[in-house]
Amino acid sequence: MTKEKNILEFWKLCEIIDFERFYLSKEKIETVSKKIENCTNTKKLTNEFAYKKLTNSNTDIKFKTTNIYKVYYGLIKSEDLIKYIYSVLKSKDEISNNEAIEKELEKLKSTDYTYLASGFTNSNFYPVSIDGTVLSINPIFFVLHQIINNKSFSNEELTKFQEDINSLFCEKFNLDQSIPTDIYIPDLDYLLNLSMYAKNGKTIFDFLPFDVETSICLMDKEYITKLKKSSSDNSVKILEDIMSLLDREDNNTLFLHEFDNSLSILDNAIVIADTNKNANIHLVTKNKISLNDQSYKISSNLFLHTFIKKDEFKLGKTVTSKKPLNTDIGNTIFETLIKFLALRKEVFYSENSNYCFAKIIENQQINNIENVLDLNMTSFYIEALKEEPKKLTHKYIKGEQNRLDVNSNIDIRKDINKLEYFSNVNAKWISPHPLYYAQQNAINIFISDLNKKQENLLSINGAPGTGKTTLLKDIISNITTKKILDCKHLDYKIFNSKGFLDSKLCSKYEIIVTSNNNAAVENITKELPQQKEINFEYLDFNPEDFLLYEAAQKFYNKSDCYTLITTTLGNSTNIKNFKTNFESMLKHIELNPVSTTVLNNKQDELNDNLELLFKELKTEEETFTRLIDIQKHYNELAAKESNFKQIKNEITSVNENINKSVEKFEHIKRSIESNHEEMSLKKEELTIIQKELKSFGFFLKLFKGKQYKDIQSQEILVEKNILEHKKLERDYKQQVADAEKQINDYKSNLARLSNKLLDVQNQIRSLQAIIKEIEVEKENLEYNICDDNFFSKEEKELQLSSLYAKDSYLKLKAEVFKISLQLNEILFIKNLEPFSSQILFYINNITKKDMTIQELEQFKNGFSCLSFVFPVVSTSLASSYKMFKKIDSFGTLLCDESGQATPQSLVGLLNRANNALIVGDPLQVEPVFTAPEVLVQILAEKYNISKIHSPLTSSAQQVADNANCYGSYYKVNNENVWVGMPLVVHRRCVEPMFSISNEISYNNKMVLATPSLNANDELSYLPVSSWINVESNNSDFIQNTSTKELKALNDFVSKYNIKSYYLISPFKSIYKAVEIKDDSVGTVHTFQGKETDVVFILLGGNTATNSKSWVSSKPNILNVAVTRAKKRIYIIGDKNIWKKHNYFQNTINILDQ
User: Fold this and answer.
1) Contact 361, 375 (CB under 8 A)
2) Closest-CA residue to 51 (of 365, 265, 370)
3) Rounded Cα gap, residues 1016 and 1019, in angstroms
4) pLDDT tens for each residue of 718-777
5) Where do the DSSP E strands lie in 391-455?
6) For 337-384, what is the HEC assignment?
7) 1066-1075 b/e with 16+ CB inside 10 Å = b?
8) What sections of 952-1100 are H helices per DSSP?
9) How far apart are the first and last CA of the chain?
10) What does pLDDT average to over the chain?
């Protein structure tokens, strides 16, 4: 298997053995013998009705409901099971210790139980097969069994194990695992025709084609009215038979069903078949029914029959056992199971030797298998983990090796703060406050990559009070604005001819907010629509300026809303509430219409304003560019000045060369003259010689031949000399020409250089003027730009600063968002019909299991329509997969408090998200994962799972950090830890809470922005934050909570008359020890995301246990507890004992300062 498949398989097994799926409260169950006794003495709820609105019908149809029982074979206390697992594995040389057990027990609901196996019975206690399963083994016992026997424990092995167990018990108790329940629907004509057979003591039910003990008959409630109005003997007889069976207390066969009488009986049968896929629906009629009409879509589980007799109708075996369950049979099943699994009987709970227990599941819809299976050991995430991984899941699991430390050096900081990033972020939440530096980094990177690639997964780490929610608001404003800009490109024609939202607007701009912490989801979705979240004064407008101002108040059922921006879905209650509120709002809009003319004019006006705003934004950014470019001007000036100096040097050199050339020229001229004089003398000499030679006659030549020859030789020599002077004269003339040319060239170059020098000089003066102007402007700047000056700030000052936080620039972006919201409203109102029909189709079909291709296409489009009207849709992680499993793609996932979510919990959403922003803090509350740790460790070893992917040692936040290329290294527990995009400016707590948190958790890298308390603060009368030292003995403890510490708390509160505070403890025993039972008291895990002025931390920690060790094993628990307090923190505990534990000595030192 690949690494990715190994991790997914491991995560599936972890989910399968999570205790959370198998908790039972003992108060809700009884022994089977008691249940059987009670059910014979209590009138069952078989004549009550449950209501369900059908999506393909315009009327409410009532479904008959009945009761079923869930039976548990072998109960065991959760804490006893943990101890048993450790004891068994310890005997197999597995590492276990008391501290590990203590830690596990603190996570569990120790008063609750779990079970060995479970199954279902009908209301008469006949065991039934549900979806092919009669008996479901708790997978914790399966994994334990496989480990003990050195066998493999994959999901495939578990499935095979379950099948083997079911085969064994089906054979033993004569059950069939495959045949579904049969539901019969007779029409009235058929019943009237049966009356001819129902004589001599027989009833019509003796002739209906079904097994009265095991099958179900549905009749139209209207039959009763029609039969009562008829006086015929047949009608009276049928009415008597029906009422007689309905009145019987043991009736589990006949149910009245309120049909839609505007539809044919076939249409009603089709509706029932569609909503009961795991049953065979039999429409029995006397009349022939034609199926030639192509408009009918007949489900494969709907059977049509004309008149038939009971003995002619044989479908097959029933799913119900031939004998009912009783105590003996239940105990036998339990005994067989523990023998098969080699378990110790004494660790299981019993009552009077009864090991089989049951609880009623009231008013369960007839054969609605999906609802029953939801009650049968289901996980929120297993189905998602079974999917083929796609989209962002690949990156999430694979991780990122090429990391960019955003705080490592100035060059990287400059690179990720280029103006182009700020230009991409073209909107902001309507608030005058700018984001801090690190917040800007995060949003710039995320928005710049939005919808651009399949790898836009960014994690953001924020310590308590560092503005994670503020950042999410700006993300929302930008995505909403980008959606409206796409609408603008479509000329605001956003629906196609099919009545579907244009595909360019689908799977891009949906925003899904989710969290493992419901309070975190509510922080976004409940607060954003409130008027206090918008600074109306900032943009000088009013809530009434939104067209949907009143409609929003209708939808949210609150008077302080301004427009539609969020909605919460996920669970069935939220979906039902949405539908009710949405339909109420639609009615309000229809009763208060806005004319098309007004809408069009308003749209045009807003569109023009939007265009103007973007022009103004561009102008502002051009100013920023000019200011940023001062460094370029400095560099250019330096280059020009260097060039100026070089040109001056070149001019000097040319002048020198000219002077040399002139000197040379003069020298050549003198040489020419000298040569000319010498040549003239030689010519004169030659003339004399030639005259002398002519004076020689014949005889003189004869008698003075030697003299004559000497004169001849002299002549030749002079002539040669003259020739040489002539040549030299020619050379000199050439040199003169060359020299003149060189001088002219030099002079030409000199002129060019002089002009160039003048140009450069002018450029230098111009640059100096520009620089001076910019310098003057920068001296008066009230905001920072991305330059060397900004990045030369001290780290604290830099983190407290913002880039490009010019008031007018920020206000323009806020205006852009405001107009985007207003255009969003107009588009909704103008397209009210397609929006409302598509949204209601989506809402009505969320739970529908089977859809045609066309229905599925409309369903997905309906979701995009809903996300258009409500830009932010929230759901808890637990509900997310059910909500999105039919959606294959959506825009952006925003997961808050991700440090509390297990790594596997995001897979279903990441398989669908095109962008994901994972926000949280792994140094706060960790995921509460209740699978036995020792089993998970063994699974991790088998699948070669690293710590980063294990739910015991990691969270969704840490896995996302590992996949994020942007971040920084922090020192945590003496290790270098990669942290995705850290936020460091803290704005919640004053000292000493800030310093405690900063030192124990964040390597002192956080920056405090919260002002100190002043003397006028209403809590300034209280003592400063401190440690209240209380020494307790073992006898003072209720489990891990000290009664002495509680007394010290009460005395302190009474002395200073403190009215409001949080009481936080690391231990769940706090719930038993205190009388207050509200949200102000609880464990650390219940308080993440909350804050108040005064907090008491009641440490406790019985010395007889190892509880203090696991509390101090990581800084998380103390970090969260301390940072809930905004103004005062009081820690109550034994100082001498706690100071010996990690992180507490640091805390004491800070408190004692």
Assistant:
1) yes
2) 365
3) 8
4) 778 878 777 877 877 787 788 788 888 888 888 898 899 999 999 999 989 988 888 888
5) 404-405
6) HHHHHCCCHHHCECECCECEEEEEEEEEECCCHHHHHHCCCCCCCHHH
7) bbbbbeebbe
8) 956-962, 993-1001, 1043-1056, 1070-1073
9) 57
10) 83
Please tell me the distance from the alpha carbon of residue 830 to that of residue 820, in angstroms, as a whole number: 15
pLDDT per residue over 396-407, tens digit each?
999 988 999 999
Q: Could you give the CA distance from residue 57 to residue 958 in angstroms, rounded to a whole number?
A: 47
Rounded to whole angstroms, what are the CA distances from 80 to 19, 101, 137, 936? 13, 11, 18, 18
Asked if the peptide bond before residue 389 counts as cis, ω within 30 degrees of 0, the response is no
Rounded CA gap, 925 and 1086, in Å? 9
Count the alpha carbons within 13 Å of 227 in the hemisphere toward its beta carbon.
23
Q: How far is CA 723 from CA 670, 676, 694, 713, 1097, in A?
A: 19, 12, 22, 15, 121
**Per-residue burial over 763-787, b = 16 or more CB atoms within 10 Å of its CB, e = otherwise:** bbeebeebeeebeeeeeeeebbbbb
Q: What angle do CA 1129, 1132, 1136 make, to 5 degrees?
A: 120
Report the SS3 class of residue 830: helix
* Tokens coding 356: 């089989």
pLDDT in tens, 297-318: 556 667 776 654 444 333 223 3
pLDDT surpasses 90 at 715: no
Of 1114, 1111, 1139, whose CA–CA distance to 1040 is shortest?
A: 1111
DSSP-derived 3-state class of residue 166: helix
735: number of CA atoms within 13 Å, CB side? 18
18-46 tens-digit pLDDT: 876 777 766 666 666 665 555 443 333 22
Count CB neighbours of 594 within 10 A.
Answer: 15
Is 0.90 surpassed by the pTM of this model?
A: no
Closest CA to 1100 of 1132, 1130, 1076: 1132
Query: Which of the four pLDDT bands, split at 50, 70 and 90, describes residue 435?
Result: very high
- Provide mean pLDDT across the span 341-351: 89
Query: Rounded CA gap, 1130 and 739, in Å?
Result: 98
